[in-house]
Design brief:
Blueprint (H helix, E strand, L loop, with lengths): L2 E4 L3 H6 L5 E4 L12 H21 L16 H14 L28 H12 L15 H10 L21 H4 L1
Antiparallel strand pairs: 1-2
Helix pairs in contact: 2-3, 2-4
């Protein structure tokens, strides 16, 4: 279930150009994982926005967009691997999986690379800053994801350490958000 997560690390905040929060997934997305439909939908949406940006800049190396259906399969896996290969230090780090992140640790302890979720957020924030605070306002936001945000974003603000209700990493007051 996608949600906004407050950043608690200076390194993460610096990587995301001073952002106070990032968009996160609740569970891993990739082969062998639960692949919550809304988590997959957020990943597909962020990937499509990055792919469209790259296609506009490099039309000769165009990559096909995903059908944002919230289902994880071969096409989503391929686009995750493609994105990781474009943004990681080594293509061998492209594993086709995206992990949720906690806002405290920038690098994966295993690969020593920046988590893909942060990189997707950084790219989206850079390209579409107008919609950063509320992805549901982005005209390209899939309708099912828009409905999810409309139903979850207003609840839980300042109660659980992230937006969207559910279990949080820590308590955050409204004062912390401003």
């Amino acid at each position: 279930m996608p949600y906004k997560k407050i950043i608690s690390s200076g390194a993460v905040k610096a990587e995301l150009d001073g952002a106070e929060f990032f968009w996160n997934i609740r569970d891993r997305v990739g082969y062998g994982y639960r692949n919550d439909r809304n988590d997959v939908l957020l990943v597909q949406f962020l990937l499509n926005r990055a792919i469209k940006f790259w296609n506009d800049k490099l039309p000769s190396e165009s990559v096909g967009l995903l059908e944002p259906d919230g289902l994880f399969g071969g096409q989503t896996w391929n686009r995750i691997k493609w994105f990781q290969a474009q943004t990681k230090d080594s293509e061998s780090m492209a594993d086709g999986m995206i992990s949720p992140v906690d806002g405290r640790q920038l690098l994966s302890p295993k690969s020593k690379q920046i988590y893909t979720m942060y990189t997707l957020n950084k790219m989206y924030r850079h390209i579409h800053r107008l919609y950063w605070d509320d992805l549901s306002k982005d005209p390209a936001c899939p309708p099912a994801l828009r409905v999810h945000f409309m139903m979850t974003l207003p609840t839980g603000i300042g109660q659980t350490g992230h937006y969207g209700g559910g279990m949080g990493a820590g308590k955050v007051s409204m004062h912390d958000l401003y």
